[in-house]
Amino acid sequence: MNGTRRASTWTAALALGVGSLGVAPLPAGATGAGEAATHWASWLGSADAAQGTTLKHIRTVIGADTGAAATLTGKGVGVALIDTGVAPVSGLPASQIVNGPDLSLESQATDLRYLDTFGHGTHMAGIIVGNDTATGTKGLAPGVKLTSIKVGTANGAVDVSQVIAAVDWVVEHHSDDPANPIRVINLSYGSGGTPNTWNDPLGFAVERAWKAGIVVVAAAGNDGNNAGSLANPASDEWILTVGAADTKGTVSAADDQLTTFTNLADSGKQINVLAPGVSVLSLRDNGSYIDTAYPTARVGDTLFRGSGTSQAAAVTSSAVALLLQARPSATPDQIKDWMVKGSTRVPNGLAAGRGLQEINVNGAIARSSSATSAQAWSVSTGTGTLDNSRGSSRVMMDNSPLSGQRSVWGSFPTATWAPHSALGDAWVGGTWMGKRLAGDGWTGTSWASRTWAAASWSNSAPWTSSTAWSDPAWAGRRWTGRSWTAGTWSGRSWSSDDWASASWS
Fold first, then answer.
1. What is the pTM (predicted TM-score) of this model?
2. Which of 12, 45, 256, 310 has its CA 20 to 30 A from that of 280?
3. What is residue 460's predicted lDDT score, i.e. its pLDDT?
4. Quick check: is 83 catalytic?
């Protein structure tokens, strides 16, 4: 059994309340889960780098600690993290964190709202903007303002419609903070869909962000080098797609290799750049799902090891923020061109054969005086089916898969949505396409420096026979100041989708 298949069974086991990480029977209606597993390689064990790869080491590897890049912090650049939320761990400075709307199923639980119950988003946030004084661990772009838009739950459950809604929100609100406009979206996520590029709704959403001046960075996926395709939306030609490199513990690219878990495509869109993605040391979310499921990945009290194209994407988003600080008037097309052409050749194995190169911030800065050509790829109309975007990735609730032209919140004809998204009015206050998902402005409260208000999902209901969003598993789970209360992360919903981390080790 490959690591991909284990990923989905473990997620299913969690949702069913199975205490161990053994194989559990899938819920009824979850016939797509095994199929979805072929698109993911999450939670592959790794024996490499027992103490992990530090962010200080990674900053050297990506050419960001010397020359013109040495003093860059990402100050004045906003990064949107569409993920599983972030937890108020000591290594995340509240002054650098903003909570956008919580679009996850857990937004309907007061004690879970905005917060990272899974542990993935906190790990990504630490790579970008962390500042763990206990260990001296500092994020690669510690000056950025990070806006967290939570879409995933404690077991990773998320639908492509939630990601589309999150991207729409970022585009419409990217200039709400004029001193730190959102210039980067980090998507350490991907569905198993291989949709038609000319009408993919998720592709339409990220292309619209790109055209709005936002660099979209997406993880290639972790199905392995024989996957045959990239995850969605990493497969979109317009955006910056990232695979993971293994640095072998050295700062020279001479011994680096493409990781075996990184997706490679047989045709169409290919990976644009590589970035370090093996045993990356970032912030631990104490008591979260991954923290309790993978205790051997802990390093001390505050750090956690993770490998995957997720981590590589977060490293690249940080590098893009540094480059944008240095070249604030640059367009996404320019940033992509400079990042690709300023990267460092990886001379080994598949990476060499495919011409894949590893990001280098100083190299990108050096390229920034060169003329670039605007991209001219065909664009998506956004009118395709959600199921094509999802592929075999399905969010489940009460053993019922979400499918068809339906978002989490109700009917979602993409031909109706796409024109509204293009005009920038898919969101009106806290409603998205007429469904109340959040409050109407920056009046919410949380541990972060600024928070978008929450709301009850009052005019929508689940796609199951139930009429309520509440989940008995939410009772008694809360953040206590340093960690989550003890217990098992289980509930009504789970997902055959997984976040693009290949292992926690």
1. 0.91
2. 12
3. 95
4. yes
